[in-house]
Amino acid sequence: xxxxxxxxxxxxxxxxxxxxxxxxxxxxxxxxxxxxxxxxxxxxxxxxxxxxxxxxxxxxxxxxxxxxxxxxxxxxxxxxxxxxxxxxxxxxxxxxxxxxxxxxxxxxxxxxxxxxxxxxxxxxxxxxxxxxxxxxxxxxxxxxxxxxxxxxxxxxxxxxxxxxxxxxxxxxxxxxxxxxxxxxxxxxxxxxxxxxxxxxxxxxxxxxxxxxxxxxxxxxxxxxxxxxxxxxxxxxxxxxxxxxxxxxxxxxxxxxxxxxxxxxxxxxxxxxxxxxxxxxxxxxxxxxxxxxxxxxxxxxxxxxxxxxxxxxxxxxxxxxxxxxxxxxxxxxxxxxxxxxxxxxxxxxxxxxxxxxxxxxxxxxxxxxxxxxxxxxxxxxxxxxxxxxxxxxxxxxxxxxxxx
Length: 403
Ligand SMILES: C[S@@+](CC[C@H](N)C(=O)[O-])C[C@H]1O[C@@H](n2cnc3c(N)ncnc32)[C@H](O)[C@@H]1O
Prior knowledge:
By secondary structure, the chain is an alpha/beta fold. It has three domains: 22-157 and 235-303, Rossmann fold; 166-227, no CATH class; 320-402, no CATH class. Helix content is 43%, strand content 16%. Strands 3-2-1-4-5-7-6 form a seven-stranded mixed beta sheet, with helices on both faces. Strands 11-8-12 form a three-stranded antiparallel beta sheet. Strands 9-10 form a two-stranded antiparallel sheet. Strand 1, helix 2 (58-66) and strand 2 form a beta-alpha-beta unit. The relative contact order is 0.13. The structure holds S-adenosylmethionine. S-adenosylmethionine is lined by residues 5-6, 10, 16, 19, 21, 53-55, 75-78, 81, 103-104, 122-124, 127-128, 132, 226.
């Protein structure tokens, strides 16, 4: 009998790492929408959320605990992941997550599953085969409500292109080594590092590969196993993903890697000008990946046409709630961005710091309390958005009591 679950090509021998991904939070995804002038989901009302390939479901559990009036679903065919997630849910007394210990194919056939306002897939799309990708598309098509948001992350070209053959080399090495997966991964890495000398022209002519190997050697072995040793490992071009999603009736809204929504933070002026001169939005979308040599994307789509924006005036974002990052409450005048560093004036940072000391505020309210003239309001808005993009501030959810 043919196995259609996708389990055959997927590495199930080692558990994945247990991490929280802030980009999966409904408030973060709403921020992406508002930043790009799309209506956010109304989070104060009950809503539904599906995490496909949830792993240990840390992100979903935390989001569910924070938003108890919403209904979360988490699906993964690795029974160990789901058992551990269920145990945490019980310990944390989180009762608004329904777990599905099954494959995506089984979930597709489960008629008891509702439709969703959010569907998220983190770390899935590049590591499953074409059949599973078709199943994911069918799930999105069947289960994402009109106006619902899809988060899809994946490894992309051209940033990973140089490392693609390295993965093949390490997988071939692993095949000849006996032992369990941990031993195979560690040995293959060690062998690849010993081959990774300038006398091998592949390494000599691809600067950075030796550093990549050294950094992999420092990563947890189960992360390296899932990243590199899965049987399926597909790099995507962002425009191909765009086409596939458009085929499902979805529109690209923006990136959950917040800096990627701000060309000023990622592109140098020459690259930005060349990209602007390209004839179609599709080409500009692709060319940005080449300009920054992007290797990982966190795309956010909405189901349906972009009719909900406010005519591109960019003011929806003023309704976003932003605040200091818990644990990093002191703002600095300098922040790191993909192109280097940004500096802000000390009086601005001091005013902002004292304004936000009492908790997150609506961006529009921060503007009216810090800004005076229309011009300075536009500048302050940009500064605030850049501080969020740099991770110095972050988006928050309103609570139902703040309604
Ligand atoms: C790389 S992990 C990502 C886990 C989690 N999303 C995160 O980012 O922390 C991929 C997860 O997807 C699950 N998975 C892969 N293919 C699947 C399928 N066809 N059906 C159900 N789960 C699947 C794996 O078991 C694994 O837990």
